[in-house]
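User: Sequence in, structure out. Go.
Assistant: Echoing your sequence, followed by the structure tokens.
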Amino acid sequence: MVKNVDESSRNDAFCDKISTAIWQETPSAENPYTVNEARCHGYEHLALINNRSFSEVLFLLFQGELPTPEQHQLLERLLTSLIHPGPRHNACRAAMNAAVSKTHVSNILPLSLNVFSGEQGGSHEVFQAMKYLQQHYETSPLDAANTLTKTANTQRMNTAEGDIMPAAGFGTYYGSADTYAKKLVDNLVQSCTAGPHLHWANAMIEGVKDPTISWRIAGVAGACLLDLGFSPYKGELIFQIACAPGIAAQAAEKADSPITEMPFLAEENYVIK
């Protein structure tokens, strides 16, 4: 029997209808369940279809207003930067394994994005990276770099294996610096109007004395998403949306392949503890 449970009524008054400020539908005269006109934050849907890009409307959905030209350019290039997490990523491997196993197509993305939700290399690392940048952005990048270096040294002494991540979004990648993540940052800084969080984090990384500690993809995404005005909660969702096409494409590529298309661990690699 469960004890010490508060069984008193909360006296919550639930609403009668679901409300949203995002999407408005005007019913047709013939059937109230079909739509005559749809609006997103006041913008007529058909007008958005004909005059705006997908990334602009994505920004509108989450932020309630259309992006400026500078915001649009940064978001567009960030989304393309994140479009594929790489075939070695666990989420992509999950998608490919599910595909060759003939998992129903409707389940591929849900199960793969569930794998993609982790705190190391997954979407929740973006959430944590954005929190870190929010908390430290007002400090000196050099002071933050020194702290990052000290934390990395401590983690390295106490960690037998795996990557070092002294702060979410920053650390090693397969044991060394992720040079491609740095290339993505350099490209964004050179080709877009980069915001203060991206510049601050870049200055911090340049001050880190450990050459193996650099940008991780989650840090790149987190800094840009903060500069675009997204909260950590929204940022994690945007990151999942951005990476989903690459994950889905990997599954589609393997859909008609036999199960032998994916490696199967040899018996000596299975360890029972």
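User: And one key feature?
Assistant: The chain has a mean pLDDT of 93.
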